[in-house]
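Q: What structure does this chain adopt?
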Amino acid sequence: MELRGQIEAEARAAKRSAALLADGAVATALRAAAAFARERVQAILEANEADLEAARGLDPGTLDRLRLDAVRVDTLAAQVESMAALEPLEREVASWGDADRVIERRIPIGVVGANFEARPGVALDVASQLLKSLNGGVLRTGGAALRTVTVLVDEVLRPALESASLPPDAIGLVRSPDRDGARILVSMPRLVPLVILRGSGETTAALARLAAEHGVRTLAHAEGGGVLYVHPSASPEKLLAISGASVDRLGVCNRLNLCLVDRAAARLAPDLVALFREHGLEVRGDVEGARPLDVPIGHEWANDPNPSQVTSCYVDSLEEAVRIANEETSGLAAAIVAEDADAAWQFLDAYRGTAAFWNETTRLTDGWKLTGAPETGINVDWTPGPRGPVTYRDLWLRQYRVVPGRR
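A:
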């Protein structure tokens, strides 16, 4: 069967199966998936090792996202267990009326697609949320992670669904590394009306444009990059602690990419540059000790082939820092380090991105930390709709019902 036919078959099976999902059985299936992930960790790690071996030429950030170990698998299992324990989505939103009763309800979408690249753990994160919201799903990953994701689907998710007397094909998989798989997934509006996109900026943006041409809605997590503004009142100790926590991993979207130092806080810049270098980062910008910046300020190093960089530049005021964060970066997250409470609140009130922090790291821009549930991605759209971490609580359609009331 040709690739489009295979993907359509997966989507049709997921659509039929989604109609049979129920809250209690899904919670049972998710608990079983967590247990299977732990029991079958060796098979998962063997597949992941094969993926890593085939991907040896890729950049360090991609390899970091791709790599699983026993600790990461256990963390994924714990997250799935936590998903099982969360309250199901409340279906009835409101009701009103007397002779005729109007009920506003949340209903499942049906089938949701998910396209993600070299981050195999996303398969469990996204699938658990789709199931929790009583939606079926079709997962598509790039060739770099396909072995690992196949094991997660075939040896963890599907057996878990079967063990809870649910149809295993509620979660489908595009089993080809061909990039056409992603393009096909975003071109089936009747079968897969919504696709979650996670990946590098231009590739994901191109898929979002193609989806729009076909009438498919997307929730795109294409850009990342955290901003840190160093106010003159910043505590040196807090600044170094927060900055270190902000660059603990390279291949994540919420790490620090742009550090804006107020000129009145220039005394803090040398220690800051030294800390970044201790973490293996190349520092670019105009602060002392940095190499010249060869791209526009606000460039998101997390999407660069070599993510081992951070930009650090001087600004003349809090207002300039906020303007840069709002206008020249992705709008994912920004933080201020300051002991001056008035300045901190001014910064928080003026920033328009999805998450704003005072004396905390942008690494907290995460579904679990902000909402108590894993995210399918972080939506940085500047229009109404699910914004910030998108979770199972956002994956529904609104329906109105009119039924007989009191006569």
